[in-house]
Every structure is written in structure tokens, then in C-alpha cells.
Amino acid sequence: xxxxxxxxxxxxxAGAATASFLGLYILHNDYxxxxxxxxxxxxxxxxxxxxxxxxxxxxxxxxxxHPAESxx
Length: 72
Description:
Helices cover 96% and strands 0% of the residues. It is mainly α. The mean pLDDT is 91.
């Protein structure tokens, strides 16, 4: 009876370890996909913001070059 109990316990813990490993692997992959998605979104927002800032800087430079025109 003791041998059967040990085999069942060993099988249970082997299954639990396998399920834990599989769950962690799936969570890790899900985390990587989510991180990549957020990184791409932030990259797009960053590029958009850079373009807007550049256009504002150019506008400011044009206003500094022609101060008389901007006061009219």
C-alpha cells in the first residue's frame, strides 16, 4: 500500500510541476506579446509627438526671423 501511495504522490507532484511550468510559459509569452504591443503604440505616439514638436520649432524659427510680420 505504501508503494502505491508514493507512486500516486510522485505522479501528482510531477503533474503539478508540469502544469506550473506550462502556465508560467504561457504567461511569459502573453507578457512578451503585450509588452511588444505597448512598445509599438508608444513608439508611434513618440514619433507623432516628435513631428509636432519639430513643426512648432520651425514655426517659432520662422516667427523669430520675421518679427515685423508677426506683429501686424
